[in-house]
Amino acid sequence: MSDFEKWFVDQDFYTNMRFIHGDKLFNRDGDVYRILPVQMTYRAWCSQHVMTKEQYIALTQEWHTKGWNARQKEVDQLKTQLNKMEACYIEKKKELEDQLNQTKYACGRYDRLYEEYRLLELLVGNYRVLAQEVLPRCSRELLENIEGWEKALRGEHE
Predict the structure, then answer these.
(1) DSSP character for 10?
(2) How confident is the model at residue 26, as a pLDDT?
(3) With contact defined as beta carbons under 8 Å apart, do 41 and 8 qualify?
(4) In the chain, which ranges are continuous DSSP H helix?
(5) CA-CA distance, 71 to 67, in Å (whole number)?
(6) What is the model's pTM?
(7) Cα–chain-centroid distance for residue 106?
(8) b/e per residue, 37-55, with b = 16+ CB within 10 A?
């Protein structure tokens, strides 16, 4: 812990700052504290003089710029990661749409096959009725006619 941090801990505002920022209170990016009030206090502590309002504003803008520049690489990496995730999302969405279209096509084919099956069932049912009811009656009549023709051909008359 540096002399400044030891001094900072002894101040009455430390407890409040520690409560707000936790363990990250003294985190740094290079030579700049990440928490702006800590950095400002550090610069004032280092210079050991009272700043004018203009100096304070200039210093605040400088720290803000340094902090921004230090975090810009991280922001750029996150943007790149977000773009990759978006591209992946678009690809997965397209795959799912293709699968959905294939499923709809398969369902349409299934519906047509089911309709054909139902028609075949009706035809088979009709043939079954034909085979069980109509053909035996026709067969009996045909046999009776054949017997009648045989008798006629033999010369037997009733």
Answers:
(1) T
(2) 92
(3) yes
(4) 3-9, 14-21, 36-47, 53-129, 135-154
(5) 6
(6) 0.34
(7) 24
(8) ebbbbbbeeeeeeeeeeee
